[in-house]
Structures are given as C-alpha cells and as structure tokens.
Amino acid sequence: MTNDRTTDATPTEATRRSLEAASLRLPMDDTQDFDDTERGFIGRSDQRRIVADDGRLVWDLDAYRFLEESVPDTAHPSLWRQGQLLIRDGLFEVVPGIYQVRGYDLSVMSLVEGDTGVTVIDPLTTKEAAAAAFALYREHRGDRPVVAMIYTHSHLDHFGGVKGVISEEDVSSGRIPVIAPEGFMEHAAAENVFAGPAMGRRAGYMYGAALDKGPGGQIGAGLGQTTSLGEPTLIAPTIDITTTGQELTIDGVRIVFQVTPGTEAPAEMNFYFPGSKALCTAENTSHTLHNILTLRGALVRDPRAWADYLTETIELWGEDLEVVFASHHWPTWGRERAVEFLSMQSDMYSYLHDQTLRLLNQGHVGTEIAEMIEMPPALEAQWHTHGYYGSVSHNVKAIYQRYLGWYDGNPAHLWMHPPVDAAGRYVAAMGGADAAVGTARTAFDEGDYRWAAEVLNHVLFADENHAEARSLQADTFEQLAFGSENGTWRNAFLSGAAELRNGIFGTPVSAEAPDLFAALTVEQLLSSIAIRVDGPRAWDEHLVFSLVVTDLDATHVVELRHGTLVHRRVDAPAEGSTVFTGSRAVIGAVLAGGIDVGAAVADGQLSVEGDPEVLATLAAVLDPPDPGFAIVTP
Asked: What is the end-to-end Cα distance of the chain in Å, rounded?
C-alpha cells in the first residue's frame, strides 16, 4: 500500500520553526563523514535493481536518489544528512585486503582476502541482495573462492543472505567453515518465533515498508535505509567462538575474537585482524545511537554490559588498531580517531544507563526521565551519537523497564482501564467526541502535536470511525514525523498516518522463512506451538502423544492439559500414548501443518502407533496469529 498524502503533505509553521531551530544546534561544520563514505571507493554496479526469481523487486539502488537534493521542509536536517551518507553504494576498500559492499541492504557486507580466497562477513538479509553485493565484489576483485563465512551476531540482517554467497553443500562437505559466536543458532532461530507475528507487524511501522519513498515519506531508518525484500536463509555455524582471546587463522589471515554476549544482540562478537590492524565491531558500534529496546519489540538489552565490552575492546586493541569497521555504516580511520569513536560510543551507553539509574533512584519514572536527560555537550557535538535509530527518549524508558518493569510504583497505575474502556471515559469527561476533537484542533494549531495526538487517540479508541478525528490524527502524526531526527520514529508516525487514511497494510516484511523454521530445535518448535493454544477452548481437552526423532536420537512427550501444552525430553515414549516416529524435518513439518500425517505415513516418511487424530485435536484448539492487527485504532 502507498500513501500519497505523505508524499504531498505540507509542514505547518510550527514544524518549520522546530526544524530551523534543530538545524542551528547541529555540528554542520563537521563534514568528515562525507569524506569517510567516499574513501576507498572502487566502483558501483550498473545493475541498479535487484529482482527475485518470481519478479519481485528486492532492492532498488536508486530509490533514494531524492536524498541527493537539499533538505526539504518535510524532514529533519540531521536525518536527511544521515540518509545522504547511507545511499553512497558500491565496493570500498577499508585497508588493502579488506573490502565492504555498502548500500545493498540495511546492513553491510565485509570481505577479507587471504592467500587463496575470500572470507565473507555478514551476508546481508536476503540471498538476492547478498548475491548482487558479492557479484559487485567479484566484478572488481576477481572470481576468488569463498574460504569462510563469519556471522558477527544473531540478527537476521547479518546472516539471512548466506545462500546468495555459499551453499549448504559447501558447508556440509567441509569446504567452507561458518563461524559465529556461541549461542548463535538458539537466538537466530528463536528471536522472531515466539513473538514473531507481533514483532513483524510492528516492524512494518518501524521501517516504513508500506510507505512511499520521498521527501514527505520514508527516507530511511537511520541504521540503513530499509531491509531488502528477498528470501532470508540460514546455514548453521560449524565453528563456535566461545571465549575472548580465541584465535583462528583462515586462509593465512589471523583473527582474534572478543565475545560480547548481551550487548546489541544476545550472541555477538568483535574481532581483530592483527596483520591489517583492523577491528570489526559487528553492531556494537555504529554511526548512530543504537537501540536498548527496538520499537518492534525485543528483549531489553544491557547498556552497562555494552559499554563495558567496548571499554574492554579498547584495552585489547586500542594501542595497535588503525581502523574500525562494522556491519553498518562506514569505517573510522586512524588510531586516535578510532579510539575516540569507540570511547564515545561506550560513554554514550554508560551515560544513559547511569543517569537513568540515578534519576529512578530519586523516584522519577521512565517517562519523566526521558524528558529530563540531556546528553553531554561533548557527545552531542558528535554526529555518531545522534539518535537516528535508537533515541534517548525510548532508550531511557527501556533502561527503566529493564530494572523496574512496567509498573511505576503509583497505585493509580496498578489497575488502569485498558485503552478502549479508558478512552470512552476520557472522551465523556471532555464533553464528547466532537468537543475532544476541538481540544485537539486547538493543540494542533498551537503546534502542541504531542497533546493533540494523545487526545485524538482517546477519541479514536472510543469511536474509530470518527472521520474528523482520523483525519486530524493523521495530520498530527505527519507533523511529528517531519520533526523527528529519528528514522524509526518518523516511519512509525507516517505509518500510523497511512493506516488512518488508507486502512491497515498488515505485515509487509516477515522473517518467517523455511530456513529459519528448519533451524528450530524440537523444544523451540513445541514451545512456539504452545503459545498458540487457545486456553479457554482447550480447558476440557486432555491428550498425550510422543515424538521419536530418529536423526537426533531423541524422544519427547507432549501433553495438553488444563489449557496448557507441556513437553519434555524423555528416555522412552509415554505408555499408551500415540507415537510419531520420523526425522526432525518431517516431524517439524507435520507439527507445523506443512505435511499431512496421512501423506507422510503413506510415503514412508513417518510411522504412527496409535491414534493419529491426536494432532487434529491439537490443531483444533490452536489460535493463529493476526498479521494485520490494529495499532492506531482499537
């Protein structure tokens, strides 16, 4: 779905004044980043569109060329500048022997040349984008064989394109090792499974995937412009990095690793190339304030650990390194500049953590602290500490949540009405919907868009069809978007406006892919089914069945009781239970509904002892997720 109104919208005078004031606070005389994004440039592709086998457009290298123009009055000048830096696509030399392909996805592919071939680091999000990026590398550097694959961490945009570069057979044959931090598979497979449908729906807002690209629409996400729209894939690692100081020599290139679990990802690692004096910091550093908690939702990250690991990074290699490069954005060259960059990134997360804790221990709640905290002038003067992807506001609230949870300690907030029930009461107290909209209109005209949005939200949750409220809320979201330095905030506001005007666009990009599903353990698969049981509908059901997984030499007993699906690994099937015997792939496909039980039995893939209808009974009480649930309306 597209949103023509966002493209043609006009900022109000209040929004223009806000943007002009913001521009005066920015370090516009610091243009080093523009020099850095061009340094080492080798060439860019003449093939500007990446298309999937089925004809879908996966990536358009020219989609954001409008960002080459001067900043319009519909965008924050700082976010516009970030977009200008991020659209500089092509193959770049970091140092001799280390290269990056930038501009092909949300993330960056790095390549390290050895004696006979090349090691690929982080093969983007989808196989189509990865294949195109790797083709550009080979066009300029020759048809070098891949000798290893490295995943820096467990987020999809750092492994999903692996099959665009290498194959499962390359790995299973032992020709190409796949290297990742310990715990990678568990987190890579599980992150988007349990809460995946909700995360995917919210990610549509965060990345603005359903919006038009343009000066009044989607202009990027701060960390990258957006994610590619091809097929995510996964090949399991063959080498785990378990300890800091662990070393590997790959094709003559020595690599020293630092494990950094619980930082930007649950499983993540930095690593150093002593021969090149080059440090890869994965996604633990980038040219933006990152997220402590993403707008799509996730487990809250640990900013204290994040900062401490970066301090350790400096202690390990700060005396020797000459360049820092990462899995997003552009490198930082020179030992002094690189160490300062690492230090400031560390101090940024330390400051947010420590000041949030200081103020919460004085009794302030998350929403208050988010308004109180200002970054130190020395940090604010750096472009790479600005909140293009994360923000001070939502990161502070995340830190508060990490320590104290959702409840702010005020008993008045302990048992509040849910949104619809509360909205009716608020609107009635304001004299009805029309009067409330009048209040919001006044706030809008005065440039108080935050208050207008709050009032109109109550009106819409009391009456989602109130035409004037829908229109004014969309206008309000638009103005909030135009004034936002944060790319994901802008996308969220504009996506809300689009749905109010045009209807729900659903989940534009889903991480549910066959390779990710196949990577789930049996325990993870059963747990993902358990969270879909409709408890009340299953109260009176009781069933037991056993799974014998032949290729894993494992047996699991599954029981539905009291509306809850429980499972455990055992030595033998439960007595009297239906027993399903087959491979992990077949049992997984049967449980997920991808293979019919009868068909699997008929072709010999599955054997059943007992009543096979037990799975049909279970399926009857499962509640499928809704990829198009409402967000800005009830």
From this structure: 21
